[in-house]
Design brief:
single chain, 176 residues, mainly alpha, 3-stranded parallel β-sheet, 3 strands, 51% helix, 10% strand
């Protein structure tokens, strides 16, 4: 959903930036160590829409939580931010390791936010399950049939040995 909204913003002519929370925090941390902290904050304040994906999915490096908080603060009331997370808002303090930083981010993000909660399996999991079901149907559907030979093959060339159904490779499955 976040990618679709970002794509719509790009189609409307807006500047959009996308990154995982861990990537953005690492970039901010590295820039701060190199003395470019202010310039990286201006950079992330620039896009009309910033999508921060996977907050709480991976632990944030070093001062990552405070760097993200500074980024959110720079964008506050000026630009739009989409945040995806698998951690409930009430549990952000544990995900960030700092209750004060979590409260500051929560305050700024929720002030004028629309929160969309999605329950159930992810789209990736649903897609994987559908693909697995199709493969399973294909294997069980062919297991009871005798392979057909071309009509030119005589009775003496017919084999009673059944070939197992072909299982697509990971590369083949990814193209479907």
């Amino acid at each position: 959903m976040a990618v679709a909204l970002a794509r719509s913003a790009v189609d409307a002519g807006h500047r959009v930036s996308f990154g995982t929370a861990a990537e953005l925090a690492a970039k901010c941390h590295k820039a701060a160590l190199e003395g470019r902290g202010a310039s990286i904050m201006r950079f992330f304040a620039g896009p009309r829409l910033l999508v921060i994906d996977g907050l709480g999915y991976l632990p944030l490096p070093g001062d990552g939580a405070s760097a993200l908080c500074q980024m959110i603060n720079q964008r506050y009331l000026k630009s739009s931010t989409i945040l995806t997370t698998n951690v409930g808002i009430a549990d952000w303090a544990g995900a960030f390791g700092d209750a004060t930083v979590a409260a500051a981010m929560r305050d700024r993000l929720l002030h004028r936010a629309a929160v969309v909660g999605i329950d159930g399996p992810s789209s990736r999991l649903r897609s994987h399950q559908a693909h697995s079901d199709n493969l399973r149907k294909g294997v069980t559907g062919r297991a009871g049939r005798t392979p057909r030979l071309p009509r030119s093959a005589g009775p003496s060339s017919r084999s009673t040995h059944r070939q197992p159904p072909a299982i697509p490779t990971a590369r083949h499955a990814a193209r479907q």
